[in-house]
Amino acid sequence: MIVNFSLLNELFRGFHIQRWNDRIRAMDLIEMDKHAHKMIIAYCLAKYEESNGAKIDWQKIIKFGIFELIRRIVISDIKSPIYREVKKNKKVFEKLNEYVYTQIEPKIESKILLDEIKDFLFTETDPNEISMRILDAAHIYASYWEFQIIKQSNPFNYQNIRIETELLNSIANFNDLIGIQRLTNKHTISNFVDLCGQLRFQIRWAQVPRVPKTAVLGHTLMVAAIAYFFARENNACPQRLYNSFFGGLFHDLPEAVTRDIISPVKRSSDEFDNLIKELEMSLAEKEIFPLIEKKWMEEIKYYVLDEFKNKIHIDGKVELDNISIDDLNTKYNEDRFNPHDGECIRAADQLAAFLEAWNSCSAGIKTEELSNAAQKIKDEYKDKMLGNVSIKTLYSNFQHVC
Protein backbone atom coordinates (compact mmCIF):
# COMPACT_ATOMS: atom_id res chain seq x y z
CA MET A 1 0.00 0.00 0.00
CA ILE A 2 1.06 3.59 -0.65
CA VAL A 3 -0.36 4.84 2.66
CA ASN A 4 0.81 3.05 5.79
CA PHE A 5 1.01 3.64 9.52
CA SER A 6 4.51 5.20 9.38
CA LEU A 7 3.74 7.58 6.51
CA LEU A 8 0.56 8.78 8.21
CA ASN A 9 2.45 9.50 11.42
CA GLU A 10 5.19 11.29 9.49
CA LEU A 11 2.67 13.55 7.78
CA PHE A 12 0.92 14.19 11.09
CA ARG A 13 4.19 15.54 12.53
CA GLY A 14 3.50 18.61 10.41
CA PHE A 15 0.97 19.64 13.08
CA HIS A 16 3.74 19.73 15.71
CA ILE A 17 6.20 21.97 13.87
CA GLN A 18 6.05 25.56 15.08
CA ARG A 19 6.94 28.36 12.69
CA TRP A 20 8.43 31.76 13.61
CA ASN A 21 9.18 30.34 17.04
CA ASP A 22 11.79 33.00 17.76
CA ARG A 23 9.13 35.70 17.69
CA ILE A 24 6.17 36.72 19.87
CA ARG A 25 3.11 35.14 18.26
CA ALA A 26 -0.51 35.95 18.93
CA MET A 27 -1.22 32.31 18.05
CA ASP A 28 0.77 29.22 17.14
CA LEU A 29 1.83 29.23 13.50
CA ILE A 30 2.09 25.63 12.33
CA GLU A 31 3.87 24.12 9.34
CA MET A 32 0.83 22.09 8.23
CA ASP A 33 -1.35 25.21 8.15
CA LYS A 34 1.21 27.21 6.20
CA HIS A 35 1.62 24.43 3.67
CA ALA A 36 -2.14 24.08 3.21
CA HIS A 37 -2.37 27.82 2.56
CA LYS A 38 0.53 27.53 0.12
CA MET A 39 -1.29 24.84 -1.89
CA ILE A 40 -4.48 26.94 -2.04
CA ILE A 41 -2.42 29.88 -3.32
CA ALA A 42 -0.68 27.58 -5.82
CA TYR A 43 -4.11 26.49 -7.11
CA CYS A 44 -5.09 30.12 -7.70
CA LEU A 45 -1.79 31.04 -9.38
CA ALA A 46 -1.91 27.97 -11.62
CA LYS A 47 -5.52 28.65 -12.63
CA TYR A 48 -4.62 32.15 -13.77
CA GLU A 49 -1.66 30.92 -15.81
CA GLU A 50 -3.71 28.10 -17.31
CA SER A 51 -6.42 30.58 -18.35
CA ASN A 52 -3.66 32.61 -20.01
CA GLY A 53 -2.64 29.64 -22.15
CA ALA A 54 0.19 28.16 -20.09
CA LYS A 55 0.54 24.37 -19.87
CA ILE A 56 0.32 23.52 -16.17
CA ASP A 57 1.68 20.22 -14.87
CA TRP A 58 -0.94 19.74 -12.13
CA GLN A 59 0.43 16.33 -11.17
CA LYS A 60 3.83 17.90 -10.49
CA ILE A 61 2.27 20.67 -8.42
CA ILE A 62 0.42 18.13 -6.28
CA LYS A 63 3.27 15.65 -5.89
CA PHE A 64 6.00 18.21 -5.32
CA GLY A 65 3.73 20.06 -2.91
CA ILE A 66 3.30 16.90 -0.81
CA PHE A 67 6.97 15.92 -1.09
CA GLU A 68 8.13 19.39 -0.06
CA LEU A 69 5.90 19.13 3.00
CA ILE A 70 7.57 15.82 3.88
CA ARG A 71 11.02 17.40 3.46
CA ARG A 72 10.05 20.36 5.65
CA ILE A 73 8.72 18.01 8.32
CA VAL A 74 12.05 16.16 8.44
CA ILE A 75 14.22 19.27 8.60
CA SER A 76 11.75 21.18 10.84
CA ASP A 77 11.71 24.99 10.93
CA ILE A 78 15.01 25.99 9.35
CA LYS A 79 14.85 29.75 8.84
CA SER A 80 14.11 30.66 5.21
CA PRO A 81 17.27 32.77 4.68
CA ILE A 82 19.42 29.89 5.94
CA TYR A 83 17.51 27.37 3.82
CA ARG A 84 17.97 29.57 0.73
CA GLU A 85 21.72 29.75 1.36
CA VAL A 86 21.88 25.99 1.81
CA LYS A 87 20.07 25.48 -1.52
CA LYS A 88 22.64 27.65 -3.30
CA ASN A 89 25.43 25.28 -2.23
CA LYS A 90 24.69 22.13 -4.27
CA LYS A 91 26.96 19.87 -2.22
CA VAL A 92 25.52 20.95 1.10
CA PHE A 93 21.95 20.78 -0.23
CA GLU A 94 22.56 17.28 -1.54
CA LYS A 95 23.82 16.21 1.90
CA LEU A 96 20.69 17.68 3.46
CA ASN A 97 18.52 15.75 1.02
CA GLU A 98 20.48 12.57 1.71
CA TYR A 99 19.61 13.01 5.37
CA VAL A 100 15.95 13.57 4.48
CA TYR A 101 15.93 10.41 2.37
CA THR A 102 17.48 8.27 5.12
CA GLN A 103 14.74 9.43 7.48
CA ILE A 104 11.92 8.82 4.98
CA GLU A 105 13.02 5.55 3.38
CA PRO A 106 12.06 3.23 6.28
CA LYS A 107 8.61 4.82 6.54
CA ILE A 108 7.44 4.25 2.96
CA GLU A 109 6.49 0.78 1.74
CA SER A 110 5.64 1.71 -1.84
CA LYS A 111 8.70 1.48 -4.08
CA ILE A 112 7.01 3.66 -6.69
CA LEU A 113 6.38 6.45 -4.18
CA LEU A 114 9.87 6.10 -2.73
CA ASP A 115 11.41 6.39 -6.21
CA GLU A 116 9.35 9.52 -6.87
CA ILE A 117 10.52 11.11 -3.61
CA LYS A 118 14.10 10.16 -4.49
CA ASP A 119 13.74 11.87 -7.88
CA PHE A 120 12.25 14.91 -6.17
CA LEU A 121 15.18 15.13 -3.76
CA PHE A 122 18.08 14.37 -6.12
CA THR A 123 17.03 15.21 -9.68
CA GLU A 124 17.72 18.82 -10.56
CA THR A 125 14.61 20.60 -11.82
CA ASP A 126 14.37 23.73 -13.93
CA PRO A 127 13.45 26.52 -11.48
CA ASN A 128 12.05 28.52 -14.40
CA GLU A 129 9.53 25.84 -15.37
CA ILE A 130 6.08 27.33 -14.77
CA SER A 131 4.83 24.69 -12.29
CA MET A 132 7.97 25.08 -10.15
CA ARG A 133 7.69 28.88 -10.23
CA ILE A 134 4.07 28.64 -9.12
CA LEU A 135 5.02 26.49 -6.13
CA ASP A 136 7.91 28.82 -5.21
CA ALA A 137 5.73 31.92 -5.54
CA ALA A 138 2.95 30.35 -3.45
CA HIS A 139 5.46 29.39 -0.76
CA ILE A 140 6.83 32.92 -0.48
CA TYR A 141 3.41 34.59 -0.53
CA ALA A 142 2.17 32.23 2.21
CA SER A 143 5.22 33.19 4.29
CA TYR A 144 4.53 36.87 3.68
CA TRP A 145 0.90 36.37 4.77
CA GLU A 146 2.15 34.84 8.03
CA PHE A 147 4.62 37.67 8.50
CA GLN A 148 1.76 40.18 8.64
CA ILE A 149 0.67 38.43 11.86
CA ILE A 150 4.22 38.40 13.21
CA LYS A 151 4.74 42.08 12.44
CA GLN A 152 1.68 43.06 14.46
CA SER A 153 2.84 41.03 17.45
CA ASN A 154 6.43 42.33 17.31
CA PRO A 155 6.04 46.07 16.59
CA PHE A 156 9.43 47.05 18.05
CA ASN A 157 11.53 44.30 16.47
CA TYR A 158 14.32 46.00 14.52
CA GLN A 159 14.41 43.10 12.03
CA ASN A 160 10.87 43.67 10.75
CA ILE A 161 11.84 46.07 7.99
CA ARG A 162 14.61 43.79 6.73
CA ILE A 163 12.42 40.67 6.77
CA GLU A 164 9.54 42.41 5.03
CA THR A 165 11.86 43.88 2.40
CA GLU A 166 13.35 40.45 1.70
CA LEU A 167 9.93 38.86 1.38
CA LEU A 168 8.60 41.62 -0.89
CA ASN A 169 11.72 41.43 -3.07
CA SER A 170 11.27 37.66 -3.34
CA ILE A 171 7.61 38.10 -4.32
CA ALA A 172 8.64 40.71 -6.91
CA ASN A 173 10.65 38.01 -8.72
CA PHE A 174 7.29 36.47 -9.68
CA ASN A 175 5.52 39.62 -10.81
CA ASP A 176 5.14 38.15 -14.29
CA LEU A 177 2.61 35.67 -12.82
CA ILE A 178 -0.92 37.03 -13.22
CA GLY A 179 -2.00 35.71 -9.82
CA ILE A 180 0.88 37.42 -8.01
CA GLN A 181 -0.02 40.70 -9.72
CA ARG A 182 -3.61 40.34 -8.54
CA LEU A 183 -2.66 39.34 -5.02
CA THR A 184 -0.19 42.18 -4.51
CA ASN A 185 -2.59 44.70 -6.07
CA LYS A 186 -5.36 43.49 -3.73
CA HIS A 187 -7.77 42.25 -6.37
CA THR A 188 -10.76 40.24 -5.15
CA ILE A 189 -8.81 36.98 -5.22
CA SER A 190 -6.62 38.32 -2.40
CA ASN A 191 -9.77 38.36 -0.24
CA PHE A 192 -10.33 34.69 -1.09
CA VAL A 193 -6.75 33.84 -0.11
CA ASP A 194 -7.18 35.82 3.13
CA LEU A 195 -10.45 34.03 3.87
CA CYS A 196 -8.83 30.63 3.36
CA GLY A 197 -5.92 31.71 5.57
CA GLN A 198 -8.37 32.44 8.37
CA LEU A 199 -9.17 28.72 8.56
CA ARG A 200 -5.92 28.39 10.50
CA PHE A 201 -7.58 30.36 13.33
CA GLN A 202 -10.37 27.79 13.66
CA ILE A 203 -9.32 25.03 16.03
CA ARG A 204 -10.94 21.64 15.57
CA TRP A 205 -12.48 19.80 18.55
CA ALA A 206 -12.51 23.25 20.15
CA GLN A 207 -14.21 22.15 23.39
CA VAL A 208 -12.06 19.05 23.92
CA PRO A 209 -8.64 19.12 25.68
CA ARG A 210 -6.25 17.77 23.05
CA VAL A 211 -2.66 17.88 21.73
CA PRO A 212 -1.66 19.01 19.26
CA LYS A 213 -4.41 21.51 18.62
CA THR A 214 -5.12 21.22 14.92
CA ALA A 215 -6.78 23.90 12.80
CA VAL A 216 -9.25 23.41 9.98
CA LEU A 217 -6.71 24.68 7.43
CA GLY A 218 -4.02 22.10 8.21
CA HIS A 219 -6.67 19.38 8.49
CA THR A 220 -7.73 20.03 4.89
CA LEU A 221 -4.19 19.37 3.62
CA MET A 222 -3.97 16.15 5.60
CA VAL A 223 -7.26 15.06 4.01
CA ALA A 224 -6.05 16.13 0.55
CA ALA A 225 -2.79 14.15 0.84
CA ILE A 226 -4.52 10.99 2.11
CA ALA A 227 -7.27 11.22 -0.54
CA TYR A 228 -4.60 11.67 -3.22
CA PHE A 229 -2.74 8.56 -2.02
CA PHE A 230 -6.02 6.60 -1.96
CA ALA A 231 -6.63 7.65 -5.57
CA ARG A 232 -3.11 6.51 -6.49
CA GLU A 233 -3.90 3.14 -4.91
CA ASN A 234 -6.97 2.92 -7.15
CA ASN A 235 -4.90 3.65 -10.29
CA ALA A 236 -6.87 6.85 -10.81
CA CYS A 237 -6.69 8.82 -14.05
CA PRO A 238 -5.02 12.28 -13.90
CA GLN A 239 -8.30 14.23 -13.49
CA ARG A 240 -9.38 11.91 -10.69
CA LEU A 241 -6.05 12.43 -8.91
CA TYR A 242 -6.48 16.19 -9.33
CA ASN A 243 -10.04 16.06 -7.97
CA SER A 244 -9.02 13.88 -5.03
CA PHE A 245 -6.34 16.32 -3.91
CA PHE A 246 -8.15 19.60 -4.47
CA GLY A 247 -11.49 18.10 -3.43
CA GLY A 248 -9.83 17.24 -0.11
CA LEU A 249 -8.16 20.65 0.11
CA PHE A 250 -11.43 22.55 -0.40
CA HIS A 251 -13.91 20.19 1.27
CA ASP A 252 -14.17 22.35 4.42
CA LEU A 253 -14.15 25.70 2.59
CA PRO A 254 -17.67 26.68 3.79
CA GLU A 255 -16.35 26.59 7.36
CA ALA A 256 -14.54 29.82 6.55
CA VAL A 257 -17.94 31.50 7.00
CA THR A 258 -19.74 29.09 9.36
CA ARG A 259 -16.90 28.04 11.70
CA ASP A 260 -16.21 24.42 12.55
CA ILE A 261 -19.42 22.77 13.75
CA ILE A 262 -18.44 19.50 15.44
CA SER A 263 -19.74 16.27 13.88
CA PRO A 264 -21.91 15.13 16.83
CA VAL A 265 -23.82 18.43 16.62
CA LYS A 266 -24.14 18.22 12.83
CA ARG A 267 -25.40 14.67 13.02
CA SER A 268 -27.74 15.11 15.97
CA SER A 269 -30.58 14.79 13.45
CA ASP A 270 -30.95 14.55 9.68
CA GLU A 271 -33.02 17.73 9.72
CA PHE A 272 -30.35 19.69 11.56
CA ASP A 273 -27.59 18.33 9.30
CA ASN A 274 -29.57 19.31 6.20
CA LEU A 275 -30.25 22.77 7.62
CA ILE A 276 -26.54 23.31 8.33
CA LYS A 277 -25.66 22.30 4.76
CA GLU A 278 -28.25 24.71 3.38
CA LEU A 279 -26.91 27.53 5.56
CA GLU A 280 -23.32 26.71 4.57
CA MET A 281 -24.18 26.92 0.89
CA SER A 282 -26.24 30.08 1.33
CA LEU A 283 -23.37 31.81 3.12
CA ALA A 284 -20.84 30.45 0.62
CA GLU A 285 -22.89 31.90 -2.25
CA LYS A 286 -22.84 35.30 -0.56
CA GLU A 287 -19.37 35.43 0.99
CA ILE A 288 -17.04 32.95 -0.76
CA PHE A 289 -18.00 32.32 -4.38
CA PRO A 290 -18.08 36.04 -5.35
CA LEU A 291 -14.37 36.17 -4.43
CA ILE A 292 -13.47 33.42 -6.93
CA GLU A 293 -12.94 33.90 -10.65
CA LYS A 294 -16.06 32.81 -12.54
CA LYS A 295 -14.08 30.27 -14.59
CA TRP A 296 -13.21 28.36 -11.40
CA MET A 297 -16.51 28.68 -9.61
CA GLU A 298 -18.15 25.52 -10.95
CA GLU A 299 -15.09 23.48 -10.05
CA ILE A 300 -15.02 24.80 -6.48
CA LYS A 301 -18.74 24.13 -6.14
CA TYR A 302 -18.12 20.58 -7.41
CA TYR A 303 -15.80 20.13 -4.43
CA VAL A 304 -17.97 21.66 -1.70
CA LEU A 305 -21.48 20.57 -2.75
CA ASP A 306 -22.11 16.92 -1.81
CA GLU A 307 -18.40 16.74 -1.09
CA PHE A 308 -18.54 13.17 0.23
CA LYS A 309 -20.46 11.67 -2.68
CA ASN A 310 -18.89 9.92 -5.66
CA LYS A 311 -19.60 12.04 -8.73
CA ILE A 312 -18.99 12.20 -12.45
CA HIS A 313 -19.87 14.48 -15.36
CA ILE A 314 -21.88 13.10 -18.27
CA ASP A 315 -22.90 15.44 -21.08
CA GLY A 316 -22.04 18.41 -18.92
CA LYS A 317 -24.27 17.35 -16.03
CA VAL A 318 -23.24 16.12 -12.58
CA GLU A 319 -24.29 12.54 -11.83
CA LEU A 320 -24.02 11.41 -8.21
CA ASP A 321 -26.64 8.72 -7.62
CA ASN A 322 -25.56 5.13 -6.95
CA ILE A 323 -21.97 5.54 -8.16
CA SER A 324 -19.66 3.21 -6.29
CA ILE A 325 -15.88 3.25 -6.05
CA ASP A 326 -15.87 0.11 -8.19
CA ASP A 327 -17.83 2.07 -10.82
CA LEU A 328 -15.22 4.84 -10.67
CA ASN A 329 -12.47 2.25 -11.01
CA THR A 330 -14.00 0.31 -13.91
CA LYS A 331 -16.50 2.50 -15.80
CA TYR A 332 -15.56 6.13 -15.23
CA ASN A 333 -11.80 6.18 -14.64
CA GLU A 334 -11.20 8.60 -17.50
CA ASP A 335 -10.58 12.34 -17.52
CA ARG A 336 -13.66 12.97 -19.69
CA PHE A 337 -15.94 11.89 -16.81
CA ASN A 338 -14.29 14.28 -14.31
CA PRO A 339 -14.53 11.58 -11.59
CA HIS A 340 -14.69 12.68 -7.96
CA ASP A 341 -14.01 10.16 -5.16
CA GLY A 342 -16.27 11.64 -2.51
CA GLU A 343 -16.37 8.39 -0.56
CA CYS A 344 -12.58 8.27 -0.38
CA ILE A 345 -12.40 11.94 0.60
CA ARG A 346 -14.82 11.21 3.43
CA ALA A 347 -12.68 8.22 4.47
CA ALA A 348 -9.61 10.50 4.40
CA ASP A 349 -11.49 13.09 6.47
CA GLN A 350 -12.44 10.43 9.03
CA LEU A 351 -8.91 9.04 9.09
CA ALA A 352 -7.49 12.53 9.68
CA ALA A 353 -9.96 13.01 12.56
CA PHE A 354 -9.00 9.60 13.95
CA LEU A 355 -5.31 10.58 13.84
CA GLU A 356 -6.08 13.76 15.74
CA ALA A 357 -7.81 11.80 18.49
CA TRP A 358 -5.30 8.91 18.51
CA ASN A 359 -2.25 11.17 18.71
CA SER A 360 -3.71 13.10 21.62
CA CYS A 361 -4.51 9.89 23.49
CA SER A 362 -1.00 8.60 22.75
CA ALA A 363 0.46 11.79 24.22
CA GLY A 364 -1.55 11.29 27.41
CA ILE A 365 -4.32 13.82 26.82
CA LYS A 366 -7.18 11.36 26.75
CA THR A 367 -10.86 12.08 27.28
CA GLU A 368 -13.96 9.97 26.96
CA GLU A 369 -15.06 12.07 23.98
CA LEU A 370 -11.77 11.49 22.13
CA SER A 371 -11.77 7.78 22.92
CA ASN A 372 -15.36 7.33 21.79
CA ALA A 373 -14.81 9.30 18.59
CA ALA A 374 -11.70 7.31 17.67
CA GLN A 375 -13.38 3.98 18.38
CA LYS A 376 -16.48 4.93 16.42
CA ILE A 377 -14.43 5.84 13.35
CA LYS A 378 -12.34 2.69 13.65
CA ASP A 379 -15.46 0.52 13.96
CA GLU A 380 -16.99 2.10 10.85
CA TYR A 381 -14.01 1.12 8.71
CA LYS A 382 -12.93 -2.15 10.36
CA ASP A 383 -14.32 -4.28 7.51
CA LYS A 384 -14.08 -1.82 4.61
CA MET A 385 -12.26 -1.77 1.34
CA LEU A 386 -12.24 1.37 -0.80
CA GLY A 387 -11.61 -0.20 -4.16
CA ASN A 388 -7.98 -1.33 -3.91
CA VAL A 389 -7.46 0.52 -0.62
CA SER A 390 -7.48 -1.80 2.38
CA ILE A 391 -8.47 0.88 4.87
CA LYS A 392 -9.31 -1.78 7.44
CA THR A 393 -5.60 -2.76 7.39
CA LEU A 394 -4.61 0.85 8.03
CA TYR A 395 -6.74 1.05 11.16
CA SER A 396 -5.53 -2.34 12.42
CA ASN A 397 -2.05 -0.82 12.88
CA PHE A 398 -3.33 1.64 15.47
CA GLN A 399 -3.41 -0.20 18.77
CA HIS A 400 -5.88 0.44 21.57
CA VAL A 401 -4.39 3.63 22.99
CA CYS A 402 -7.82 5.26 22.82
Class inferred from helices and paired strands: mainly alpha
Total of DSSP H or I helical runs spanning 4+ residues: 20
Q: What is the straight-line distance between the termini?
A: 25 Å
Supply the CATH class of the largest domain: Mainly Alpha
SSE order, one letter for each helix or strand: HHHHHHHHHHHHHHHHEEHHHH
Helix content: 55-70%
What is this structure's SSE topology?
Blueprint: H1 5-12, H2 31-51, H3 58-75, H4 80-88, H5 90-104, H6 111-122, H7 130-153, H8 160-172, H9 178-184, H10 188-197, H11 216-233, H12 238-250, H13 255-258, H14 263-266, H15 270-287, H16 294-304, E1 312-314, E2 317-319, H17 325-330, H18 342-362, H19 368-381, H20 391-396
Antiparallel strand pairs: 1-2
Helix pairs in contact: 2-3, 2-7, 2-10, 2-11, 3-5, 3-7, 5-6, 7-8, 9-10, 11-12, 11-18, 12-16, 18-19
Note the main attributes of this structure.
402 residues, Hypothetical protein af1432, two-stranded antiparallel ribbon, 20 helices, 1% strand
Write up what this structure looks like:
The structure is a single chain. The protein has 402 residues and is mostly helical. The protein folds into two domains: 5-200, Hypothetical protein af1432, CATH 1.10.3210; 216-396, Hypothetical protein af1432, CATH 1.10.3210. It has helices at residues 5-12, 31-51, 58-75, 80-88, 90-104, 111-122, 130-153, 160-172, 178-184, 188-197, 216-233, 238-250, 255-258, 263-266, 270-287, 294-304, 325-330, 342-362, 368-381, 391-396, and strands at residues 312-314, 317-319. Strands 1-2 form a two-stranded antiparallel ribbon. β1 and β2 (317-319) form a beta hairpin. α2 crosses α11 and α3 (58-75) packs across α5. It is globular and about 55 Å long. The model has no long low-confidence stretch (mean pLDDT 93).
